Structure formats: C-alpha cells, structure tokens
Amino acid sequence: MDVISCENLYAFRMLDYARQRMIKVLKSLDKVILITYGPAGIQTGEYPCEADGAVLYLLLPGTSDHLENLVHDPSVVLIRENWELRGNGEILSQGIGPSHLGLLLNQELKWCKLLQILPDYLQIRTADGWGSVETIEFDAEDE
Known about the structure:
Layout: H1 6-27, E1 31-38, E2 41-52, E3 55-61, H2 65-72, E4 75-80, E5 83-92, E6 112-125, E7 133-137
Antiparallel strand pairs: 1-2, 1-4, 2-3, 3-6, 4-5, 5-6, 6-7
C-alpha cells in the first residue's frame, strides 16, 4: 500500500484546484482572440471556440495566415479582457476532434480548420483588469 505524505496530498489538491479553475474559465468561452507568430508575421483575430475539459478548440478559416504560422511554430497566445493563456496549437485533420463539440455543427465548418489548444499556463487578472494576477501552470501530463 502506498502512503501519501501530507506534502504530496497538498500538492495533489492544489493541482486539482488549479485544473478545475482553468476548466471553469475555459468553459465560459464562446470566442477568444488568437495570437500567433511565424512566416506570416504576427497574426491576431477573434474566433469561435469551445472547451473540452482543459483543452480548447477554435474554428479558423481555411485561408487564415494563422495556419501557416502554426505549421512553423505551434506556440499560441489567447486573450480575453481579464486573462491570457499560453499554450500550443495543433491543426486537426478533417473529422478529427471530440464528436460532442458544438463547434462541429457550425455551418462554416467545411471552410474551416479545427485548432486544438493545449494550455501551458493561464494568467487571470482581477475584475478591473489590473493588480494581482492568479497564475495557473498546466502540464499536459497532468491531464
């Protein structure tokens, strides 16, 4: 029988709290601003999105310059008025993705690419946008 030390139990509970906090923030989204950098330069745009746990999915137009940037560097920044998320994006093949995503019912889907974002960390600012910052680091291995 494995014995869990108080220190390990505390770390586990904090990790669980942080993961649940991130999931709560992501679940409330329907649009997000995506920022990428690469051969097409700095690209920004607002896109529809949907969370599945701690993973975020975005619909990008098939002609978006973001796609060229993501092929060369998967690093992304997502922003909303009171938070910033950094992570890595992966362009999914047509028909790939959780079948329960509402994004997959979008009429524009045939002209779009589905982008999967795996978060590295999330910074949440206070409601007025400045002051203290809550930082949540996330490792895909924690999934």
